[in-house]
């Protein structure tokens, strides 16, 4: 998990990419960046980018912050649902679930920025792309090896359990599944790339242009 310091507060950072409402009714992706206090789980802030539905989610998170909500509280919110306006599990709920898992359940996140910085420092990292071969060939994280999720258990022997490992997919869900498998196999330190390859490519391009 990437941790920064706001004064004395150590923060966990999550990127979550989800549609604002049902895809078949023209749902558009929202990219949510959320921060929480690593020790208490308390939500500290959020930013959202998207074509529609941004104000609703920011209002929900801002209200939660004003009442001192923790990440798990977001997951348990009961929000309005109808296919033209939301998904069955709102992006805010997924944000709370993923943040809480990273903080409380031993499945830490790594942001693209931290990954790029750690690679630049020369640190030995083991990066696993769990997507399809076609997706991997189109674009991938620098230095990644391709092991689809369905093959992870059978190919554990190819990996070093003592090297810091980062799993990823396109947006984060499959990467988390691979992360759990490797942790259960006894890997020492495994991170899921927050926001997946989609978020990585955007941030890598931004950093390269600066």
Automatic annotation (TrEMBL):
Domain of life of the native organism: Bacteria
InterPro entries for the chain: FAD/NAD-bd_sf (IPR036188), FAD/NAD-linked_Rdtase_dimer_sf (IPR016156), GlpE_sulfurtransferase (IPR050229), Pyr_nucl-diS_OxRdtase_dimer (IPR004099), Rhodanese-like_dom (IPR001763), Rhodanese-like_dom_sf (IPR036873)
What positions does the domain Rhodanese occupy?
121-209
Q: Which residues cross the membrane?
A: none
The protein's name is Rhodanese-like protein
